[in-house]
Amino acid sequence: MVSEKLVLWFEEVGKDDRELVGRKCANLGEMARIGLRVPPGFALSVEAYKDFMSMTGVVDEIGEYLAKSKPKDLKQCKQASVDIRQIVQSKAMPEKIEKAIVSHYNELSRRCHTDEIAVSTRSAGTVSHPGQYETYLNVVGGPALVDKIKQVWASTFNTRSLVFRSRKKMPLESDPIGIAVQKMVKARAAGVIFTADPNTGDAARMIIEGNWGLGESVVGGESTPDIYILDKKSLKIQEKKLGPKSRYVTFKKGGVIEKKAPPGKSGKFCLSDEEVREIGKLGKVLEKHFGEAQDVEWAVEEDRLLPESIILLQTRAELIAQNKTPIDQIVDLMLDRFSRGVGYDGGKM
Amino acid sequence: MAAVYGVTRFEFDEEKDLENYAVFLADVVHGTPPWRPLFFVESWGRWVYRAVQRAAEQLSLPTTKGWDARYIDGYSYLAVIETSEQEAKKREPVFRKRIRPYIEDFDAIWEQRKTDMMNTYKELKKGYGLKKYGDIKKLSNIELLDLFDDYMQVDRKQWGIHMEMMVPAYYLFGLFEQMCNELLGFGYADPLFAKLMTGFDSMVFRFNKKIWRLGNRAVELGLGELFRTTKDDKVLLSRLEDSEAGRKWLKEYYDFLEVHGWRNERMLDWATPSWIEKPSLGIPLIKVAITSGGTYTIDERRGQAIREREKAEKEVLDRVPAEQRGWFETLMKAAQKAGYWSEDHNYYLDLYCNGIGRWITREIGQRFAEAGVIDDPEDVYFLLADDIEKALVPMGKNKLHHQVNVRKKEWEGYLEVTPRPYYGNIDLAQEILRKDPVISVATSVPIIRKDVKADFYGAASSPGVVEGIARVIVTENKLAELKPGEILVAPGTSAPWTPAFEMIKGVITDGGGALSHAVILAREYGIPAVTGCLEATKKIKTGQRVKVDGNLGVVHILRNNKA
């Protein structure tokens, strides 16, 4: 049975393997299977997390620690987070797991025709809690990768997660997750597409947000991106709003860095109309395949030509404002329509 | 660069100011014709812009900190103080919290504020023992000076409340219009939009109803003939003194004025008389009421408007996809209240407060003229607060003819000026108007349209197409020149212009946005309106035949067409 495997290639998994490798990896596998361009890579299974915790004895140590300290409020959770992450990171990676990681990494490098391929490591929970756990970008070399994987696991004990689990009366001692290890895309621009308007739920429009460089500046919401609104049926661009994009994220040795955008770039749209339509096309494919509106991360790879340049980094069911109160939705719309970029059809007010 | 009436606060330094702000837009809606110095420097210039800035802070508006202003050749020019991207991010979460109550219950906040304001006016009068209009004569000079100072603070408060309400009103209204456009493909120019916004009973309409009742009373008392045949309104007032019935009617009229007469001929100015001071000002309206018969037309229309509105609401909601109906309906209701507010507030804020301002400054002017400080009581409006303080106590020792002459000359120069619509980069104006949807209350951006050929391009504000004879009216005191069926061409309109809408077939304005007075009334009365034409009052001549196309937002001058 595959489920005993600690590390699996994306091609080996599909959308039903959420419990096995986490939602993100399962969806990446599904995208690869149906022939969409995703960066090559592999998944660490949820089992690998559990194995690490039990084989190293971390599980018992954490159990003892929690029995003693019983963290409840924010301050106590903060301290517990520091202590527990220390416990996790102090442990050596068991040989069996390390071997599986390194052999897959070497194979990935070989497939990409290089000695040591730069990769990203991202958490993949079985239920989605976006942005909760740490992500490491531009990781190079087997030993560095093994270390970062430990750090992603350790981040399941960050303060936010402890507080969250404590409030939800979930067990504090572990939160098994998968990890996606993916080739880094040399992104000229990156961002997200929502295949339905996330504020209104309008299924006739798709919204693309993009910035120069890596997608982190868009996903993290630090910089105001360019916005493109597409008619879903015709893929016609209904509206383009130039975002100030004052900062962008780019590579540095052993990681990434956020930089001030050069003036020539912040004043220009980061996507061509053809690129916008291609991203829209892919968004439609994903929505149709998964049967519901999707929130997709994409990147435009340097030195490639359309349509090969558009790479999909992940997809998930879109969180639409359905559950928000009408007032919250109105405030969202106000912020969206009055605070970003250039106006709608102009001339009406 | 030049000081304005000797005050440096509004000097325009074209080079430096345009480094800080992309574009300055002329406020042609409020500032036409140019104000005399006392009102501009001590009231409008001092409080209005500050109130917008305060409202932007209180609400933590993400994209704007309000407006900065300059005074160029007699006109106010506004620039939006944009926030940086970082500031916007910081302000956003606070804005989320602070805007909520206005979406949840705009009315409740407004009810509270207007009660507060009416009490403030009452307290101000009570503090000086003033019960009736004439009581101000009993004040000593030093008391009058103190009253003037205290009034200025009341004026500040009034502008504060004004902007506190106006900013959310514009955000709600603007968003609703945009979402109608996005989801259902209709905007201001659609009759459906007009129907959604009409049939609300604001104080301005209730006021007009009281006028109608006074007309009915005159007929009941057998005075109809006298009203109909006496052309001169002042003569009519003195004739009414001659009979028992006339005196009875006058008492009712004066009682009405003691409560509701705190309104100046020009709403935002002290240099025109108030109704309570010059009772003949109300007579033309009462005459219209008498000649048009007993029922109040807008009341009839309102019943129909309410039914049509309810039908329109249902139609619109049916067209909105089910999953979006929740927020859409909430937004629609809030936008309707915002529209209602923009009519209602005039009575409690602008009109009432400036009526009191007129009362006090007029009294100061009269005392100055009697003591030979100035020649004419109305010359007081060429003074500033400092001059008033210098000459009111000790009364008669310090003469102010020189100050009056210098500033009057400056002001008269401004009357000759045709203001430039903007300074700076007009290409950026659309984006700025979006970041600050409120500024459209005062300004307009030239609209260039390639698809239609016309003499004026404006905003399609109230639907319909109509042809008729143009009547250019720049100030309220010329409203009597209007003839039924004409098309009104004005810089902008305010509450005192309301009766005109009973007679006209269409309206064209130089400035003003979707919530401006002219637009709301045009929708209410179902007549076409094109607003924001910038130079319509300058280029259209009374008597010319014009075509107002409220669907497309264009105006044609029909030359050689006497059909």
Describe it for me?
The complex is a heterodimer of chains A (349) and B (563). Chain A is an alpha+beta fold and 349 residues long. Chain A has 2 domains: 2-183, Dna Ligase, domain 1; 187-339, ATP-grasp fold, B domain (D-amino Acid Aminotransferase, Chain A, domain 1, 2-Layer Sandwich). In chain A, 38% of the residues lie in helices and 23% in strands. Chain A contains 12 helices and 13 strands. In chain A, the strands form 3 sheets. Chain A has a 6-stranded antiparallel sheet. In chain A, a hairpin with a 2-residue loop joins β10 and β11. In chain A, α4 runs antiparallel to α5 (74-90), α5 (74-90) runs antiparallel to α7 (142-154) and α6 (95-111) packs across α7. Chain A is globular. The model of chain A is unreliable at 341-349 (pLDDT under 50). In chain B, a hairpin with a 4-residue loop joins β11 and β12. In chain B, α2 (37-59) packs across α4 (141-184) and α3 crosses α12. The longest helix of chain B is centred in the middle third of the chain and has 46 residues, at 325-370. Chain B contains 17 helices and 12 strands. An 8-stranded mixed sheet of chain B has the order 5-12-11-7-8-9-10-6, with helices on one face. In chain B, strands 2-3-1-4 form a 4-stranded antiparallel sheet. Chain B starts with 13 loop residues before the first helix and ends in a 6-residue tail after the last strand. Chain B folds into 3 domains: 1-83 and 399-441, no CATH class; 99-370, no CATH class; 444-557, Phosphohistidine domain (Glucose Oxidase, domain 1), CATH 3.50.30.10. Chain B is an alpha+beta fold and 563 residues long.
